Amino acid sequence: MKNAYALMGRRRFEYAAAFFLLADHLQDAISVLHNQLEDTQLAIAVGRVYGGDDSPILLNFLRDKVLPQAAREGNRWLATWAFWMLNKRDSAVRCLVTPVSKLLSPPETPNFKSKSYLTDDPALVVLYKQLREKSLQTLRGATMIGMREEWEFVLHTAGLYERMGCDLLALDLGKLYV
Amino acid sequence: MISLKTLRYFTHSPNSSDANTIQNQMTASRKDLHTSYADFSDDDEPQSVTEEVAARLSELLQTKQIPLLSSREQFHLADIIECVGMVEKHRRSIDDNAGRFLLFFRAHALSNAQAPISWREITWAFHSQSQDILVDLVSRHFSGKMLWQHAKESGMFMWMTDITALVSTFSVLPATCVLTTLRSVHNLRSSLAMSTLKLKTETLWIVVYTIWPSKRNQYYLVFGEWRRGAESRKPHINSCQTTLMKNGGKQQL
C-alpha cells in the first residue's frame, strides 16, 4: 500500500494501480485508473476481470461514475450499456428515448453546450426496437415511456434522417410506426 | 392513358409506328424524358451490395473519377465499399448486430484513428450473439498480437459478455505486453494486466526490473520472493522468464 501511494506521488499511475491490486484494493485501483489515468475502459476491464461482472465495486463504479458521465455527455449508448451491465434492463431501454439525466437519482444536470445535431443518433431507434422485444423487463421499461414521448422520439429520428439526406428512410420509419 | 409527353413523342418521332406494345410506350416515354439514360436498364443490376459487387465497385473507383467528388472523398467512398464487402463476406456466420460492429470497426481501422471505437459500436457488439467470432476477427485484425491499446480501440473488454472468455483473453494481454516490456523497458500496462490476474511474482519482477533498476537490491530485500543472494538472482530471473513464456504462449523472446 505504501508503495502504491509512493507511486502515485511519482505519477506512475499504472504501477500504483497494480500495487493497489496486489494489496487487493480493487476500489482504489479502479479510481486511480479512472481519475488519474482517465482511462475508463481500462478501469472497467480491470474491474470485470478482477472482480467479475457482479462485483459490487464494479457496479458501484458504473453507477457513480459512468452513468453520470453518460448523462453529462448525453451519450445514450454508454448509458444503455451501463444500465444493462447493472442489470437494470428496463432503464437500458428507457434511456434510449428519455433524457439520461432524468433516470438518475439525484438527477444530473446535462451540459447545455451546443452539440452537433447528430448527438442523437438515428440508429437509436433500431436498438430501441430490438431491446424492447428482448425480455419482459425491457418491455416493462418500454411501457414506462409515454405514447407521446415515443412518438416524438420517432418523429425526431425521422427528422434526423431527413436532415442527413435520407428522406426515404425517414418516410419508411414514419410509415412503419403508424 | 397516354401522357402528354408520350403523345408529343408519338407525333414527332419517326419511329412512332414501332411503338406498339405498352412496354414500348413506356420505354419511349422514358427515352423522351431522359435521353442520356436511354440505354440504361436496371434489370440485371443486383439488389444489394454483395461481396462481388463491392469488389467490382472498388475496382471501378480506382480507375474512374466520379464528378464532383474530391479524390479524398472518393477514397473514403472506396473505403466504405470495401468495409461493406468485408461484412458481406462474413454475413452468413454472424448476426446483424455483429455485422454493424464489424462494419464500423473496419471503417475505424481504415481511418487510422487512435481513439477507441464509439460506444454505439460497443453496444452493437454487446447485444450480438456471435461474439466469439467477433473476438476472433478482432484479434486476427491485430494479427494475434493484442496490446491493451488495441483492445481498447476495439472496446472488446466492454462488449464481451462471456466472463470466462473475457478473463482468458485478458490473460493473453500480459504475455504480449511483457515481451514488449523486455524490449522497450517502459511498457507500463503490462504489470497492471499481470496483477489483475494475480500473477504477483511476475508483476514485481517487471516493476523491479523496469522502474527501479538502481534500487533492485533494496526490493529484493523487501519481497520475500526475492530475498536471495546476489549469485542466485540471475537464475531466478531466468526462471521467471520461462514461466512468463509458459504463461504467455508461443512468442519468442
Descriptive overview:
The complex is a heterodimer of chains A (178) and B (253). Chain A has 11 helices and no strands. Chain A is mostly helical. Chain A has 2 domains: 1-52, no CATH class; 75-177, no CATH class. In chain A, helix 4 packs antiparallel against helix 5 (56-73) and helix 10 (147-163) packs antiparallel against helix 11 (167-177). Chain B has helices at 4-12, 22-33, 51-63, 71-90, 96-111, 119-126, 131-141, 148-154, 156-159, 163-183, 189-196, 200-210, 216-222, 230-248. Residues 1-23, 175-188 and 208-253 of chain B have low confidence and may be disordered. The chains are: A mainly alpha (178), B mainly alpha (253). Chains A and B meet through helix 2, helix 4, helix 6 and helix 8 of A and helix 6, helix 8, helix 10, helix 11 and helix 12 of B.
| Largest sheet geometry of chain B | none
CA(first)-CA(last) distance of chain A: 61 Å
Distance between the termini of chain B: 82 Å
Helical region count of chain B? 14
Mean pLDDT figure of chain A: 82
Record field, number of beta strands of chain B = 0
Overall geometric form of chain B:
elongated
Please report the number of helical segments of chain A: 11
Q: Over the alpha carbons, how many angstroms does the gyration radius of chain A reach?
A: 20 Å
The percent range for helix content of chain A is 55-70%
Give the key terms.
heterodimer, A: 178 residues, mainly alpha, 2 domains, 11 helices, B: 253 residues, 14 helices, 66% helix, disordered C terminus
Task: Offer a quick outline of the entry.
The complex is a heterodimer of chains A (178) and B (253). With 178 residues, chain A is an all-alpha fold.
Helix-strand blueprint:
The complex is a heterodimer of chains A (178) and B (253).
Chain A: H1 2-9, H2 13-22, H3 26-36, H4 40-51, H5 56-73, H6 76-85, H7 89-94, H8 124-132, H9 136-143, H10 147-163, H11 167-177
Helix pairs in contact in A: 1-2, 2-3, 3-4, 4-5, 5-6, 10-11
Chain B: H1 4-12, H2 22-33, H3 51-63, H4 71-90, H5 96-111, H6 119-126, H7 131-141, H8 148-154, H9 156-159, H10 163-183, H11 189-196, H12 200-210, H13 216-222, H14 230-248
Helix pairs in contact in B: 3-4, 4-5, 5-6, 10-11, 10-14, 11-12
